[in-house]
Sequence to fold (124 residues):
Amino acid sequence: MSDWTQPVLMLCAAFVLSTAVPRPLAQTLRTVRDHTILSPELPKADLTLGNAFRYVGGQQVNLYGMADAEQHLFIRGGSNGVIDAFYWVQFEHRVPGAVQRSEEAYCTEANRRSFTNSECYPDS
Fold:
């Protein structure tokens, strides 16, 4: 990584975590013990990271009224106190009753982008 990459990544992570508006969800499904996220369902899994990673914290956020997300951040710090690496783990589920956006409204010819032989609607 170049010299500026780590500070930029740290700044981006700090900004996103500080500006997201935490909102209580219907229920919190996952717990964290040491280096492991315990997920009893949706999906049922235990995600264990290496001992070098430390759990920093988590939050719950609503994504545009369409989905609820549970986010967890683990970091690995170097001996100089700089973050060497991080894992940002996010679980999402659609909010019951959320109205899906109409493809007709957002997938217009003006929004279409082509990449090789695929099409993409970046704002849909």
Q: What stands out?
A: Helices lie at 5-19, 103-106. The CA atoms of residues 13 and 46 lie 24 Å apart.
